[in-house]
What we know:
Blueprint: H1 11-16, H2 27-31, H3 35-45, H4 68-78, H5 81-92, H6 98-112, H7 114-120, H8 122-126, H9 130-133, H10 135-138, H11 143-172, H12 180-197, H13 199-224, H14 239-253, H15 273-301, H16 306-325, H17 329-341, H18 343-361, H19 370-388, H20 392-421, H21 427-430, H22 446-454, H23 456-459, H24 473-476, H25 480-503
Helix pairs in contact: 4-13, 4-15, 4-18, 5-15, 6-14, 6-15, 7-15, 11-12, 11-16, 11-17, 11-18, 11-19, 11-20, 12-18, 12-19, 13-16, 13-17, 13-18, 14-20, 16-17, 18-19, 20-25, 22-25
Family: Belongs to the purine-cytosine permease (2.A.39) family.
Organism: Clohesyomyces aquaticus
Subcellular location: Membrane
Amino acid sequence: MTNVDIESVSEKDAIKSPEKFNVDVNVGEQAKLGGLNGFLAKLASRGGVELRGANPVPYEERTVTQYLNIFSLWFCMSCNPLPITFGMVGTLSFGLGLRDSALIILFFTLISTIPVAYLSTWGPRTGMRQLVLARFAFGKYLVSIIILLNLATLTGFCVVDSVIGGQALSAVMDGETINATVGIVIIALLSLLISFCGFKVLHIYERFAWIPALVAIIIATGCGGKHLSNQVEVPPATAQVVLSFGGLVASFMLPWAALASDFSTYMHPKAPPFRIALYTYMGLALPTILLMILGAAIGGATPNIPSWTAGYESNSASGILAAMMHPAGGFGRFVTVILAFSMLGNLSATMYSITLNFQMFLPFLFRIPRAIYSVIITAIVIGVAIEAAKSFFVNLENFIGVIGYWSAAFIGVVVVEHLVFRRSSFNAYTEDENAWDDAKKLPLGSAAIGAAVLSFGLIVPGMSQIWFTGTIAEKTGDIGFEFALVVSALLYLPLRYVERKMSGR
């Protein structure tokens, strides 16, 4: 593929010969959009915006060999107050002690990160985004159900990120200069800039942004560290509470599996799978474990520290972090600002995946440039986040407690499809370069949807949420995600055999 001057080529030529452009295989379609496409194409020609979107990346364009980028991206996504906030839930909401919370976080994170690391290795081998790959199990049209669930999940994470960042900015001056609403808008708009540009800019940003974030977290820990030993006395943990909080931790990790390959599709096809998996695993698990445990320690001490309690009541988790920094004066406020902006690493990457999901939701949406969806999702996130901030921790628990169920069912289906029916061969996805977009060459998807839906026959009685506790969960605690993963995989085997026999594909 050769570089050309986009401005010197007519839209008619672009439609006839999109291969001339060093920007996107979709330029021909996007040229039909007129001036907007021309503007984006100019930005893309200068390396500023990724136009490809959710279309598979051809073999010859998978050229990135800086495999450590995948580590820095996941590390940056996880090195911020988000895991700290979730860790606080264990001690503040579930009433667990620090030791029990730490052990639960360690065990469930180590286990639930494995699917994310494994699926991330599929990107270099196929050049396909994760939910494009899901078409090979769920079909071209029924996969839209999974995409809709993933859109809701990722949007929820964006809302949480925006609230944490916005409340951190508000907490800098106790809401006197910037209130939480203004803070949310600022954080969301800054993330829009990164997600709008796409893969290249995102990876460059994530490569370095974790450094000030890590330094700020270390400083905050140092300022408030003397109080962390002042933990609230709690009764011994019960098995029900252990499994319920463990399910919450798993629900934090498992949804990343639905976008794991989104960040590795431009990497070289011969990228060592073990290195990609290891970098993903360490980049995601290491900061999550350490920061969640830190959050559990902070949550356990908060009721005993009046200033932390006041911060929690005014700005939730971000208010506690700001209160920890108050003894450092103006420097502490500066560090709190850095903590707020550290949310951009997770928020911008998540918004990037949302733009791809919007394109994949319905086939005709591929015609709209990926970058446009970043504007749409920013508007949605700002509106929802402002409302969600009013009862942050309640909304947080309700959201994260549910998303793990469908994510686990999704993992069970796609892994069985790959290991059993595709015999672990990536040629099954790429030997026909048009198969990913041809409904006649893809499964019907009825077996995949059927397995996922039927698994809820055990998921529902195994659920333990604030608003509902199933009959099994009353005795065991929340084991819904375990049921989702195992039952969906077991059901998919016979259902897929029947589907193949009846449809021939």
